[in-house]
Amino acid sequence: MSEYLAPGVYVEEVERGPRPIQGVPTHVTALVGVTERGATGPTRVTSAQEFERAFGGEFDARKFLPAAARGFFENGGQHLVICRVVAADAAAAQRAFGDWVLHAVGAGEWGNRIVAAIDLRPGDRFRLQLSYRSADPSLPELREAFDDLSMDPASPDHYARRLGTADAPRSALAWLEGGAAAALPPTVGPVNLAGGSDGSPASLGDFARALGALADDRLRDVALVCAPHAGADAAGVHRLLIEHCEQQRFRFAVLDCEPGIVQPGSVDPAAAGLDTQYAALYLPWVYVADPLGGARRLVPPGGHVLGVYARTDIERGVFKAPANEVLRGVVALEYDVDRAQQEMLNPRGVDVIRSFPGRGIRVWGARTLSSNALWKYVSVRRLFIFLERSIYEGTQWVVFEPNDEALWARVRDTIRLFLRAQWRNGALFGAREEEAFFITCDRTTMTQDDILNGRLICEIGIAPVRPAEFVILRLFQWTAKP
Fold first, then answer.
1. For 309, which DSSP code?
2. From the candidate CATH numbers 3.40.50.620, 3.40.50.11780, 3.40.50.720, 1.20.120.530, the one assigned to the domain spanning 29-86+200-379
3. Where are the domains of the chain?
4. Is 156 exposed, middle or buried (0-12, 13-18, 19+ CB in 10 A)?
5. Per-residue pLDDT reduced to its tens digit, 183-224
């Protein structure tokens, strides 16, 4: 309480009523896999061009993350987090210049192809030039030039501020470690970095380590996760993705089927032990145009499907099933799935991509891998993830508030305003608000023991909208009476 000692008028700001809850993003996507080069920590990119600058382009016909990233952006995706997988025994290239050391931003043999040059400039400044040439001579060379780098830590041109650090590199190629003597680096002609090594082939443990980095609280806005086909380890990576999403609770995984399936109707995720409400499986693989030569290339569909997820979320909302949408950038399917085959796959939770004459290639399934009928639709599961996380984030202020009727009323009003907005946007089912949701937070949800032990219990019932998966039109002859 404020203390008043002198006569006068005092103005106080008090907080009453509900606090607004802001809906969390649902379309931020993480791709986990092997890239040509780049940092190994989670890195955000917002376009295909930015991805190629940071991680390179197509470099191995058996590695599909670059194609997935391109498909994501082609289909309307906007925010992507890349988790580059490297072996635990991989080493980053570097080059020492006196007391200074220039490090590649990430481990791998690729760093040995970085060429660096340093020139001194007037006023205790220096210039660093970097260039990189891929092992594939047909790929363009990447060049970076950092002029007027400063030794002054307070300067905006300080070398660590311009190039970044080991944990947060700003250059796509390298970061600079200053010498202990704090003297200017020597003039250096064009020289290659050395010592970079790919180490052992990437293993399940390496994928698990990359997924573990996604648990960082700074990446809590990531809502979708995918690891483009990982070869022989694909089944194990699928299980890692599912475990990650189930543990995080607020994420959903998109899985790719195996290529070259002779009998699509025989695919059965349950027989492989895949039963989860936090993932969806898509088939078949798709043909895309290679960005270098234009030839057709077969790639897994996950990246393109995630772009559809993001596009649907942005244009309609997370409650709209990401299905009956055209896959952009796809020129053909690995094989066609007909109605009879889909009648076997759909009840098993396998989502099919089909080609329709005159309508293009479309996602034609919207089911999770769950055997629980309550959670069989992707849109229902993701709607609850969105609502749960939004309410979770928006009610953190309640912790340690006085646990009485006034607080209970504020909590009810806070959640009611948020759910009312979702109902009006079409996310909840019901002609009236009372049919769409209910909120109870009073002595009927809490015992005296709960109150004495500091527990506030709020029960929220939600009626989600479900997709019209089977549209039945009944026609009959009707003769009007005279």
1. H
2. 3.40.50.11780
3. 29-86+200-379, 94-192, 413-482
4. exposed
5. 888 888 899 999 999 999 999 999 999 999 999 999 999 999
